[in-house]
Write a structure and sequence with these properties.
The two termini are 31 Å apart. 38% of the residues lie in helices and 18% in strands. It is built from 13 helices and 14 strands. The chain has 3 domains: 238 residues, Rossmann fold; 61 residues, no CATH class; 74 residues, Ubiquitin-like (UB roll) (Roll), CATH 3.10.20.30. The protein binds guanosine-5'-diphosphate and magnesium ion (MG). Magnesium ion (MG) binds next to helix 1.
Length: 397
């Protein structure tokens, strides 16, 4: 699963990305072997399941701070959103390539309205951030439309002759976007295209399809950044009402970056996402003032900087993923004595059998039963898992 960070220039994407991928503790193991220059590892925050057993977990990947466990997720800083990106303008091709890999998008907007269409600084709030939301939607729609239209005439005529059902044909045509048959079927029904032959679908129909495919395959959360700037709060309230279908979370990426850097240098104790921090080391007056500003104006007013919350919401609410720990009823430790070393992010509706296959194909094939380690109850293969479950798989030897 991959998170894409998108937005026009100067809204704070790189700051957000840097903050989200900055781990305060030394990380021994980096997951995701092939890391491109603009990609990195962020962390979603969950409860450390070991706490319930009177222990603290020892993650093989990610880390623990207090009672929270931070689980790695792959993130990409998708640079190059400029008008016409879908036509290859600017770094358009790279942009679309990065996007096609993303399962969920964090759209960073400058909610203070102090960055114009070109990414230039203007006096807040002279730019309306609502335009940025519509602009990204359009770029994505046109990009997907181009993929739909690619070789469309030949394709639709060919499909007509073979009598393949439209939703099967469309899923095949858009497999690169991860459009499954179930999804294309839903879209065709929603758009009332069932009774119309594919060769008769016009440009409007194809655009409607592109829009639906975009909504389903590139779900988006809006990071309302620069909430620390004067006037940002009013914009946030107004725009939230204007786009009721989106999850919008206010944030100050710059503040989160400052807090994580201060924690990394031992100046403060801070758990990402928390509403406060403790001063630990000696600071100069400038550092004191900066952190004091954040404490009063960001944490005090908005309960957190928003960055961690945005990652967690993208993964656990927008995508609906769940975090599952493999563990044994007899002991939570692996052979090296690590407590609950692993944690897996699983798609919505995952069952114990899905989890067994995720651990190892052999576990899946030889599945006998699973045990919910928290309740010690045995469960079958169809059992739906719940976020933060600890699960033992019993398999045939
Ligand atoms: N006031 C304020 N400025 C920010 C915040 N996040 C980023 N910036 C500033 O916005 C400018 C652009 O940030 P950058 O991350 O390079 O934007 P990008 O072009 O979208 O990657 C820089 O001057 C940042 O310091 C924030 O939360 N609040
Ligand atoms: Mg940048």
């Amino acid at each position: 699963m991959q998170i894409g960070v998108v937005g026009k220039p100067n809204v704070g994407k790189s700051t957000f990305f840097k903050a989200a991928t900055l781990a305060e503790v030394e990380i021994a193991n980096y997951p995701f072997a092939t890391i491109k220059p603009n990609s990195g590892v962020g962390y979603v925050k969950i409860n450390d399941a070991a706490v319930q057993f009177g222990k603290t977990s020892n993650p093989r990947e990610g880390f623990v701070l207090g009672k929270s466990r931070f689980v790695p997720v792959q993130m990409v800083d998708v640079a190059g959103l400029v008008p016409g990106a879908h036509e290859g303008k600017g770094m358009g091709n790279q942009f679309m390539n990065d996007l096609s890999q993303a399962d969920v998008l964090i759209h960073v907007v400058d909610i203070s309205g102090s960055t114009n269409d070109k990414g230039e600084q203007v006096d807040p709030p002279s730019h309306d951030p609502a335009d940025d939301i519509k602009f990204l939607e359009e770029e994505l729609d046109y990009w997907i439309l181009a993929l739909v239209k690619k070789g469309w005439d030949r394709f639709s005529r060919g499909m007509q002759q073979t009598h393949i059902e439209a939703h099967i044909a469309i899923a095949k045509h858009l497999s690169g976007l991860g459009c499954k048959e179930e999804l294309s079927k839903k879209i065709i029904e929603k758009l009332n295209l069932k009774g119309k032959h594919m060769i008769d679908w016009d440009d409007d129909d194809l655009m409607d399809i592109a829009k639906e495919v975009r909504k389903e395959t590139k779900p988006m959360i809006i990071a309302c950044n620069k909430i620390d700037v004067k006037g940002a709060e009013e914009n946030y309230e107004r725009i939230k009402k204007q786009f009721p279908d989106y999850t919008m979370i206010k944030c100050s990426a710059e503040s989160e970056l400052a807090l994580r850097e201060a924690a990394k240098h031992g100046l403060i104790e801070y758990i990402p996402g928390a509403s406060t921090f403790e001063i630990k080391g000696n600071m100069n007056e400038k550092q004191k003032a900066a952190l004091g500003f954040i404490k009063e104006n960001i944490l005090g007013k908005h309960t957190s900087t928003g960055v961690q919350n945005i990652l967690d919401t993208a993964v656990f609410e927008v995508l609906g993923y769940i975090a599952i720990f493999p563990g044994g009823v007899a002991k939570l430790e692996d052979s090296e004595g690590r407590v609950l070393p692993d944690c897996f992010l699983m798609p919505p509706n995952s069952t114990t059998l899905d989890f067994a296959f995720r651990l190892h194909t052999d576990f899946g094939k030889r599945f006998i039963r699973a045990i919910d380690v928290k309740t010690k109850r045995a469960v079958g293969k169809e059992h739906r898992l719940i976020h933060e479950d600890v699960v033992e798989i019993v398999a045939d030897a």
